[in-house]
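Feature request, filed as a ticket because there's no other form

It would be nice if the structure record came with a short human-readable summary line next to the tokens. Right now we just get the raw output. Example of a typical job, pasted below so the devs can see what we mean:
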Amino acid sequence: MTADFDALFNFTGVTAASHRRPCILLVSHEASRTGAPYALLYLADALQKLDRFDVRIVTQFGGPLVDDFARVAPLCVAAEHCGRLGIGSADFAAIVATRFASLQPRGLVLCNTVALPEYNDAFMRAGVDLLTWIHELPAFFDAPAMELITHSSKHIGVYSEWNRAHFTGRYQIPADKLVIVP
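Raw output as currently delivered:
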């Protein structure tokens, strides 16, 4: 199954880490030059430098940071696969989640936005440990979106104590599930 997972990624500029290492899969909505993708890029680089994990990146869409992501870790731009396979993003998310779930050792997935509910749902259905790292403010979500994130995520990372207080109050998310990730 490792070959099936590897087939999703472009290894240009990087060498695959040993499959004996746990995989950390970082998922983003795009590779734009904005805060959340930059934060994910810096996190991927820091994780690679630890030399303890097989770090991979999935972005739903491309953007100006695609080459930077590809230099740091094997990259999958989901929209390219969806177009080639003639499937929607939810179907592709299910493929990624199923293939990730088959890895040994598996590791974990970090999704850096609430803009990809299909990935939260797919990883939850595949039984994969997921950390959702929320960079958006609490006012940007509706209750069903937060319910999905709460149920699918082992932990939810937020940027400040203010966000943590607003997420616990507005959406009744258990305080111990929210962690501050500056």
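Something like this underneath would help us a lot:
The beta strands are 23-28, 54-59, 75-77, 107-111, 130-133, 155-158, 178-180.
The helical segments are 2-6, 35-50, 66-72, 78-85, 89-101, 117-125, 143-152, 161-171.
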